[in-house]
UniProtKB/TrEMBL annotation:
Modification N6-(pyridoxal phosphate)lysine, positions: K60
Functional description taken from the UniProt entry: Pyridoxal 5'-phosphate (PLP)-binding protein, which is involved in PLP homeostasis.
Family stated for the protein in its record: Belongs to the pyridoxal phosphate-binding protein YggS/PROSC family.
Protein name, as recorded: Pyridoxal phosphate homeostasis protein
Keyword terms, alphabetized: Pyridoxal phosphate
Source taxon at top rank: Bacteria
SUPFAM superfamilies in the cross-refs: PLP-binding barrel
Cofactors, names only: pyridoxal 5'-phosphate
Organism: Acetobacter peroxydans
Record domain Alanine racemase N-terminal: where: 32-245
The keyword DNA damage belongs to this UniProt entry's keyword annotation: no
Length: 253
């Protein structure tokens, strides 16, 4: 399908303000249903099995009530950017839902590695040798190791997280040796103004070279293109939860 003919609901501005229950829970359930339908459609159009693609609902900056609304609507996999925010939000939710899976998707400081390893089911943002060292030490200390993805800065943008393209092969190889099967795949965030297809294809080719099966790519604006290019995880935030409130509101009650 031509990406240009995909009809997308508005996901920003006033059109994205929840119209459902006062707490937005109806809206979240409706939007989740709509996103899942679009994901299935994109997979079918790409002759893929819709079951190969998992939705990671990115709940960063949104309150626990929003996560609960999504959980009630059958969503189990969530993405958070900040370890501190995830640590405040998720342990009580996990107590109520043993199926819950938390992916950490934001740039990770080495001094947060231990908390990250304790909290996460998957860390999608492994992007440098020093972080691999820190995660390895944390895993020894905690006696558990989450699944890992290497984040590749496919656009080589200086301000972005992710390993630069020319260092990616070496980091992937080193992580493979060190973490074995726990290194599951690759993640990328294409530059805002590029055609995302080129970046998705690049990531898929790298994963193929290294025999990795998980590809985390695609967000609210481009998850259908990502599915067309082989995504197995799509990270969708604002199209489910609405525009993000200021970061502080999720951190300070
Ligand atoms: C915030 C975020 C997303 C979700 O972005 P939306 O455009 O709101 O869907 C996905 N991936 C990462 C790494 C993010 O930080």
């Amino acid at each position: 399908m031509e990406p240009s003919v995909v009809i997308r609901p508005a996901i920003s501005g006033s059109a994205a303000v929840p119209h459902g229950a006062a707490d937005g829970s109806h809206t979240i359930a409706d939007r989740l249903r709509a996103i899942r339908a679009r994901m299935d459609q994109a997979a079918i159009q790409a002759s893929r099995d819709p079951a190969e693609v998992t939705l990671v609902a990115v709940s960063k900056f949104h309150p626990q009530t929003s996560v609960r609304a999504a959980m009630d609507a059958g969503q189990h996999v969530f993405g958070e950017n900040r370890v501190q925010e995830a640590a405040a939000k998720f342990p009580p939710l996990r107590a109520d839902n043993p199926d819950l899976r938390l992916h950490l998707i934001g740039g990770l400081q080495t001094n947060k590695a231990r908390d990250a390893v304790r909290l996460a089911d998957m860390i999608e943002s492994l992007d440098r040798p020093a972080l691999a060292d820190a995660l390895d030490r944390a895993a020894q200390a905690e006696g558990r190791l989450p699944d890992l993805l290497v984040e590749v800065n496919t656009g080589d943008e200086p301000q972005k997280f992710g390993v630069p393209r020319e260092q990616a092969d070496a980091l992937i190889r080193a992580c493979r040796q060190r973490f074995g099967e726990k290194l599951r795949g690759l993640m990328c965030i294409p530059p805002a103004h590029d055609d995302p297809h080129l970046h998705f294809r690049l990531l898929r080719a790298m994963a193929h070279t290294h025999g990795l099966s998980v590809l985390s790519m695609g967000m609210s604006a481009d998850f259908e293109q990502a599915i067309a290019e082989g995504a197995t995880l799509v990270r969708v935030g604002s199209a489910i939860f609405g525009p993000r409130p200021a970061p502080e509101s999720a951190l300070t009650p």
